[in-house]
Design goal:
- The protein has 267 residues and is mostly beta strands.
- It contains one helix and 20 strands.
- Strands 1, 2, 3, 4, 5, 6, 7, 8 and 9 form a nine-stranded antiparallel β-sheet that branches.
- β13 and β14 form a beta hairpin.
- It is globular.
- The N and C termini lie far apart (48 Å).
Length: 267
């Protein structure tokens, strides 16, 4: 009876913790395309204040290891969209799927979706994938799962972040990078080049580094067009979002911006 009470308390505390930070964890297991065993585990923010992030795991791969996924959440439809990132920032897969059945005792499931190889265009279905290790309203993740939404330590952010996506028109990978160098306590100089097709590039002004507020900073008036952006840093990646409207994109090629997910490639 004592052990049961301890288990109930632990579950209650876990639920309170999830509610407190607004994050939920989902974990699904099934066969991609009806034949490839896969586990998809990730966290998302119920108010959509952070990008959903986690891992996709292929247990029957030659050297199985969790692969980072980061994407977007569309709460109106309980729809998720993810990119699958290799350690060098290369996008090796894209996927989208709908989750349903949150009210079921056995937990929600992926009811329909698709994984696509961006280079070959080959697609595999994602459907009828039930929750994995679901108990009393919580998804318990495998041992290899570690939160991908851990905020970066402002004293130890990465030196370089990058991503590369396949551009079918160019027949090659294109992408962008972000570089940082220290400028004093909680201050960094930055340099960004984003070229998914056209180019947006810039750097912090002399004597005006970015000022970190924990794992976040905002930077205004990047150029003569008045472009501004915000950056949210995590242990494994960063997310950049524009804070000014499309009229400030004129200084970049064909309205390209700094926006995107960049994977940490150098400590």
């Amino acid at each position: 009876m004592k052990h049961l009470s301890i288990l109930v308390c632990a579950l209650f505390l876990a639920v309170l913790s999830a509610w407190a930070d607004g994050r939920e964890t989902l974990c699904f297991k099934g066969k991609m395309g009806g034949r490839i065993n896969v586990i998809i585990a990730f966290e998302y923010h119920i108010d959509n204040e952070e990008p959903p992030a986690g891992y996709i795991y292929y247990p029957n791969a030659k050297n199985p290891a969790p692969i980072l996924i980061v994407g977007n959440y569309f709460p109106e439809e309980d729809h998720f969209v993810f990119n699958e990132y290799q350690s060098d920032g290369t996008i090796s897969g894209t996927m989208h799927f709908k989750v349903d059945g949150f009210e079921y005792a056995e937990g929600p499931s992926i009811v329909e979706g698709e994984w696509t190889n961006p280079k070959t265009g080959k697609s595999l279905t994602l459907k009828d994938m039930p929750s994995y290790n679901y108990y009393h309203g919580l998804s318990y993740t495998p041992d290899w799962f570690h939160s991908a939404l851990t905020p970066a330590d402002p004293a130890h952010i990465g030196k370089r972040y990058s991503y590369k996506q396949w551009h079918s028109g160019m027949g090659d990978y294109m992408g962008g990078h972000v570089s940082f160098r220290g400028a004093g306590k909680d201050k960094v100089h930055w340099e960004i080049c984003n070229a998914p097709s056209n180019i947006a590039e810039g750097k912090s002004a002399p004597g005006r580094p970015a000022v970190l507020n924990g794992s976040y900073f905002k930077y205004d008036n990047v150029n003569e067009c008045g472009y501004g952006f915000e950056c949210l840093l995590y242990d494994k990646f960063l997310k950049i979002k524009s804070t000014t409207d499309y009229n400030t994109f004129n200084c970049f090629g064909a309205f390209t911006t700094f926006e995107g997910i960049y994977i940490k490639v150098e400590e």
